[in-house]
Amino acid sequence: MTMNITDDGSTATTSCGAPSAAVALFRSLGDPARLAILRRLAEGEARVTDLVSCVGLAQSTVSAHLACLRDCGLITSRPQGRATMHALARPELMDLLASAEQLLAATGEAVDLCPTYGTHPQEPTR
Asked: For the domain 31-112, what is the CATH code?
C-alpha cells in the first residue's frame, strides 16, 4: 500500500477532501491481522515465525501484511542472521490505537452496529 504524494511533496487529497495519506493509513490499520501484528510488535521485535504463531495465519499471509505495514512506514525490518526482525517504526502509533480504544469505549456499540462497517445482528431464521 502506498501513500499519494504529489510531485511537489504535498499530500494528495481524495475527491471528498480527505488526505489520501490518511485514507491509506487507516486502510492499513483496518485489518484485524495487521492490528494484531502491530500490537505484538509494540512488545518488541519479532520474526515472521513469531508473528505466525501470534496471529495464526500462514507465513505468506503474514509476510504480505508486513509488506503493507512496511510500505506505509509503520514498521521496519532488519536482517539478523538468516532471519529478519520486524519492529514498530513509529511508537506513537500505539498512542493512536489507544485513542481509538477510548473513542470506541465511548461509541463502540454505535460503531459495531454501523450498517456500513460494523457487524450486523443476525436476522432470526424462520
From this structure: 1.10.10.10
Q: What are phi and psi of 17, to 5 degrees?
A: 95, -5
The residue assigned the cell 485513542 is 99
pLDDT, one tens digit for every residue, the chain (126 residues): 444 445 555 556 556 666 688 888 888 898 999 999 999 999 999 999 999 999 999 999 999 999 999 998 999 999 999 999 999 999 899 999 999 889 888 887 787 777 777 665 555 554
Q: How far apart are CA 72 and CA 2, in angstroms?
A: 6
* CB-CB contact of 47 with 86 (8 Å): yes
Which residue, among 67, 68, 43, has the nearest Cα to 54 in the 3D structure?
43
Are 113 and 121 within 8 A, CB to CB? yes
3-state secondary structure of 83: strand
**Element spanning 92, H or E:** helix 92-112
Domain ranges of the chain: 31-112
